[in-house]
Every structure is written in C-alpha cells, then in structure tokens.
Amino acid sequence: MGKRLKQQRRGKGTPRYRAPSHRYKADLRFRTYDDVEKTGMLRAKVLRFVDDPARTALLMEVQYDNGEKGFLLAPEGIAIGDEFDVGAQGKIRLGSVLPLYSIPEGFYVYNIEKEPGDGGKFVRSSGSFGILISKEEGKAYIQLPSKRKIVVSTECRAQIGVVAGAGRVEPPLLKAGNNYYKKKAQNKLWPVVRGVHQAAYNHPHGGKQHHAGKPTTVARGTPPGAKVGHIAARRTGRRKGKKSKGESA
Description:
The protein is mainly beta.
C-alpha cells in the first residue's frame, strides 16, 4: 500500500499544514470605506513598524486624527512620525491611501483594491509596485509587477509608493539552517523532495530510474493521488521554430 501524497495529507486539515495565524499581527485591510473618506480625508501618523510573519513586507501602525489606530503596509522611505492622508481629498504623499481617480497617471502604487471597499488585494509583497498607466471613463489601467495589465474601477483605493523591503531575496542564505527557519515562520515544510527521487509507492513519478518514465502533463480535474507534474499545461518543452509576429522573447 502506497503513501498519501503531500497534497492529500494537506487536505485533511491537520495543524501540521495550517498557517500559524495565531502569530499574525494584523488582518491587513484599509479602513471601512465610509463617508469621511469619500468626501474628505483623515490624517494618519506613523507610530511604529511591525514585522509580521504573515507577509514579506513591513507593517506600520498608524493613528488617525479621529483617534482610531490601524495597520497599513509601509512604503519604502517612510519614517516614524511621518504623516500622510487617507481619503479622496488627501494630498499626494508617500503612503497616502487615495482612490485611483485622485492619483496622477504614471505614479507607483501598491496595495490596490480589486473592487471598491475590499481592503486591498494586488501588489502587497516586499519591494513590489504597480504603475497607474491611464484612466478613462471610470476605469483605471494598472501594470502589475508581472507586467500584466489589469482594469479596475477608479473608485478603488491604493497606496502611493513602493512596498518596503526591496532586495529581500538578494542576500544569500549561506546555509541550509537559515532557510529552515525562514520556512518555519509560515509553517512550510522544507526541504521539498522531487517526485522522481522518491520511491514508486510515495509518488507517481517515483522509481529507481530517477525520471518520470511517462508523460507528466495532467488534466485540471485529475484526482489528488495523480495530480502531479505539469497541471493543465498548454504546452511543455522548449519552443522551437521562428517567432510569430508580435511574439515577445
């Protein structure tokens, strides 16, 4: 009898595979989209910075001029004691939370909402930023860090700047122990053994030949016991032949 694959064991829901949410510092969202932000603005002041294991970016605890406190993603270059604005009438400052119709085209933005009021969905990892390309007829066109372009409502909010923590992955880890503790912070198992290096009863690609020995492309609806390899791949292997017109490298 073979062993269950990792994705099969993970589906059982045991604590071994759960994210350690009890260690997370904040449920990161913008303030509720109330009338104050729609028609005016709030002033926010940075109180301190918080390292949250739930995400790669640094958080900043802020206090609004109405007495409320909250957490936001910290932009590159902000300092304790700095102030910025939150709301439609706010000024263009580092870290300001503004609707896209109030942000000039060409600005760097992050923590972008997908739908007005959802609290921020896009561009939240350290060192990342999106570019507000253009706005027309209530729609904003934004280029994500992956170069993919999305279209959202200009009522959606975003922060101005670049997410703090750029260059996080550039320094070498130097030893395996550092990577172990890096993965342990978010309860991720490491190292990950390739399927071809496992025994045949552990993995569909296993066996002493150290190669899969069969096609590795599987359908999207394949059951978990066989859903390994190139899942629903459009194509595999190297591209051959001449480039078609308009195809990028």
